[in-house]
Write a structure and sequence with these properties.
By secondary structure, the chain is an alpha/beta fold. The strands form 3 sheets. Strands 5-1-4-8 form a 4-stranded mixed β-sheet, with no helix packed on it. It has a two-stranded antiparallel sheet with strand order 2-3. A hairpin with a 2-residue loop joins strand 2 and strand 3. It starts with 6 loop residues before the first strand and ends in a 31-residue tail after the last strand.
Length: 383
């Protein structure tokens, strides 16, 4: 059997994760996250895949198509904003366009910035930083420069409390532990993902951050001056809806929340157990076409330097490593189940106390940050 499953000791305050499920245990009454005491699973599986299929290394590197897709979507959003400049903000045409076209387009740009953060649009790191700022323009608010270090820390520190800002905080999980609370979270999750990182730890302000802010403010000013405030309102509303109750927004929850359940525990299971830890989940469905294949999330975390167009190729080459992993078939169902299933919620995340490192802390090696940081590197971002 291929090395698709890692064995780890996992314990929660009152939850034990066994296999891919959660079971009641008996410790702290309040903290119900799944606590792991081994490293994240992707490094081990990456090494196993490279050993079994060394040709996957050739999949790493920039994808030329990305920049053309970004230019097309940025142009589409600007055109829509201009076309709606005289349309009432809360009219049916405005709202439908913002939800169907705008939210889908801006979610696409969120994930384009995600690709670019891994240096997968150009070979030059500087070109990637600048192009991410360009992709950021229709989103309405500057975030691409800050997203990159937070996201790369998420990769190098998956599940590490205090470093991985994709993890919900204790306060979020505690106060939103209800159907209404989860519905509120799903409706406003874009705000949680925007504010939470700054609450966990703050990044130093760098030149690219300042350029991102200046470029965005300039773009917004020019758009309002020449197309009116409704044009900017369309872009802002598109960004909000992209991270709200929208089918494509299901990927935020689907990627790392544990959904699978298991029968009640026995007495022997109330202690620490050796069990597989499913903390990343892929989605294999049609919305990947609109979202840079972000649904292939196990594949992406195993090989962050493989661009979106080659992730399906990676999946096919190393299929025996992925076929038995739990995965999702519908992002819409993910949102529905997350809200209504009492056994699923913000507590359903694997956390660890140690491991990983923080981008910007001064201890990162350049070859760990993306696909093309190290000059002359033959194996890209697989260490």
């Amino acid at each position: 059997m291929p090395s698709t499953v890692l064995t780890a000791t996992v314990q929660s305050g009152n939850t034990v994760l066994s296999g891919s499920s959660k079971q009641p245990a008996s410790s702290c009454e309040k903290d119900r996250f799944f606590w792991a005491y081994t490293e994240e699973p992707h490094r081990t599986r990456r090494q196993a895949i490279i050993k079994a299929h060394p040709e996957v290394i050739r999949l790493c590197g920039p994808e030329t198509l990305t920049k053309y897709c970004v230019i097309a979507v940025v142009s589409l959003q600007i055109a829509c904003a201009i076309c709606l400049r005289h349309t009432a903000i809360f009219s049916i045409p405005f709202l439908l366009t913002a939800y169907i076209i705008g939210a889908t387009a801006n979610q696409n740009l969120f994930l384009a910035i995600h690709e670019i953060s891994h240096n997968l649009a150009f070979r030059s790191p500087t070109a990637n930083r600048l192009f991410a700022v360009f992709a950021n323009l229709p989103i309405g608010l500057p975030y691409s420069a800050a997203f990159r270090p937070y996201h790369l820390t998420h990769h190098k520190s998956l599940g590490v409390d205090g470093l991985d800002t994709d993890l919900p905080t204790f306060l979020e999980a505690f106060f939103l532990d209800s159907i209404l609370g989860k519905a509120f979270f799903c409706t406003f999750q874009i705000l949680f993902y925007a504010i939470r990182p700054m609450a966990v730890y703050q990044l130093p302000l760098t030149q690219i951050h300042l350029f991102n802010i200046l470029a965005q403010v300039t773009f917004d000013y020019l758009l309002v001056r020449y197309a009116g405030s409704n044009a900017l309102a369309y872009l802002i509303m598109s960004s909000f809806l992209a991270g709200s109750l929208h089918p494509c927004a299901g990927h935020f929850i689907a990627e790392h929340y544990v959904f699978e359940k298991q029968p009640p525990s026995t007495a022997a299971q109330k202690s620490l157990v050796q069990a597989p830890v499913p903390e990343t989940f892929s989605y294999y469905g049609p919305l990947n076409f609109l979202t840079y294949n972000v649904g292939l999330h196990n594949e992406h975390h195993d090989f962050p330097a493989v661009p979106w167009t080659r992730l399906p190729v990676l999946h096919e080459i190393a299929k025996e490593f992925y076929v038995d992993l739990p995965h999702h078939k519908s992002w819409t169902w993910v949102i529905w189940q997350f809200i209504w299933d009492k056994e699923v919620g913000l507590w359903c995340r694997v956390k660890r106390k140690e491991g990983g490192r923080k981008v910007g802390s001064g201890i990162w090696r350049e070859d760990e940050l993306g696909a093309n940081e190290a000059r002359g590197s033959k194996i890209l971002n697989i260490k």
